[in-house]
Amino acid sequence: MTTAPVLARPAGGELFASTGLLARLDLRRERIITPVTIVVLVLTNAATVSSIKTLYGTPQERATLAAGAAANSAFKLLLGPLEHLQSTAAIASWRAGLFMIAATAVCTVLLVTRLTRKEEELGRVELVRAARTGRLAPMTAAILVAAVFALVVGLAMAGLMSSAGATGGQAALVGAQYTCTALAAAGLAALTAQVATTARLANLLAVSAVLGGYVVRGIGDATGVRWLHWTNPVGWAERMDPFGAGDWRPALLGLAAFGICVIAATWVTGRRDLDGGLVAPRPGPPSSSIGSMSGLTGRLNRGSFLGWLLGIGVFAVLVGVLVNAASSLTSDNPQMLDYLHKLGGPGELSKVFLAVIMTYLGFAAAAWAVTALTRVRADEAQGRTEVLLATPVSRSRYIVAQLVLIAVGITVLLLVAGLLAGLGAGAVTGEWATMLSGAVRGAAVQIPAALVLGMAVAAVYGAVPRLTVGAGWTLVVGAFLLGPMGELFGLPSWVRSLSPFTHLPTVPSAPMSWPPVVILLALAALLAAVAWWRFTRRPIEGA
Fold first, then answer.
1. If we measure between CA atoms, which residue out of 230, 201, 216 comes closest to residue 109?
2. Phi, psi of 261 (to 5 degrees)
3. What whole-number distance in Å separates Cα of residue 347 and Cα of residue 489?
4. Own/partner pairs for 294-297, CB < 8 Å, 24+ apart?
5. Which of 242, 324, 379, 520 has its CA 20 to 30 A from that of 90?
6. Helix, strand, or coil here: 358?
7. d(Cα 199, Cα 216) in Å, to the nearest integer?
8. Are 233 and 185 in contact (CB under 8 A)?
9. Both ends of the chain: CA-CA distance in Å?
10. How many whole angstroms separate alpha carbon 141 and alpha carbon 139?
11. Which of 359, 390, 402 is nearest to 535 (CA)?
12. 510 near 352, Cβ under 8 Å?
């Protein structure tokens, strides 16, 4: 009689075998997207610091801001209360701080999921684990890379605040706000990557938690229920109060959340199968009624599109409600008034404010187009496009369906955003017809510029698919920095004209001008034709 061999539990060191090697591999794989993310985050905060120096350079202008727009409940919901006016760094930290902290946390979530569950979903973790690699090594390597990202962002933000007038202690606390919140998000993402069975679901769970915390914190600020700050990492970051109380204790909560989530993720990892998880997406129906390529494309992108529509819609309502605060922003501040008029044109201040906000919403719609084309690129890289094209679906029908999706998606996002912004503005002003008409027209006029960016990314995908993600985000971020931010940076007009949004008429504050709109639509059509032509003639990059 024979007995089955008893397998010994792996030693602790074996669980982490090859972690250093995998961490170096992850750093190499992230050598483009992560540095670009850091640069964008730092440049955005640098632009905020520059604008604060220009627009609120005197104590009187800062006091006017605190007593006016900053006292608005909607501003408190978005940015928190403005309580400290002693320096440019203090104002800049309020103006961009909590929002940028939440954005950094979201970027950290995407980073961890990309290096863990996404790799497992693609089958690469199975190959890695077939070598002499510890069970916990892939997750640990991803967490180490995320920790480096969080630390670098924190140091960069601390240096930026120091250059803007913060003391050493204040700058260190600002950096700790970013680092500790990002670490808490990294731990949460590590856990959701073990719980969910797909990268998309893992991102959805973790990002929803981060943004939900941001909203809960905002509700606490807007309603005065300040204990809500203690329910989430973004609220803990606000409680650190670098320019007031200077409390380091909430940072310990962020670090504790990071540790607890990592321990929980480690426990789940040791008790689940590869490719397994606790939460799986709902299976589809046993039969499908989708009968066209356009229908399939819409079905595949429905979930992410609705998420973007919800996010942009909520933002549109909030900024619509803030339309009356435009006068508070510019009272006794000719620099702010001049800046708004340069971006939003002449006319009534409420209409100028709407014109400026619609430009930002146009960039949001273009960013959605990049994410949609990123999915198209992923389908091709993973072999799904090749399988689909083996059916009676032609290359032409396939790429046309993607181009139609981009065009319709951008149009719907902007029109719905304009409608919701108009409703918000009408609710606070009582001028329903005027605000609705102005907001919808202002949003509609952004469609050609957003289409140019979207179709430019599609053309890159059609010609050189491996550059889709990098080129797509470079185009959108570059157009944003050259457009609205270019005015703050004092860039010459010929440089700013490289952004398609700078050529649009500033509706509703100025009359409609059709020539630039027609030219941009023609350029978008030309780029779409290039995308179609190149895709139908190049080889498909299968898995």
1. 201
2. -65, -40
3. 24
4. 294/401, 294/404, 294/405, 296/401, 297/401, 297/402, 297/404, 297/405
5. 324
6. helix
7. 25
8. yes
9. 48
10. 5
11. 402
12. no
114 contacts 207 by C-beta, under 8 angstroms: no
Give the distance, in angstroms, between the CA of residue 337 and the centroid of all CA atoms in the same chain: 28
Asked if 493 and 485 touch (Cβ cutoff 8 Å), the reply is no
C-beta separation of 187 from 263 below 8 A: no
Amino acid at 94: W
Instruction: For the full predicted model, state whether its pTM sits above 0.90.
Output: no
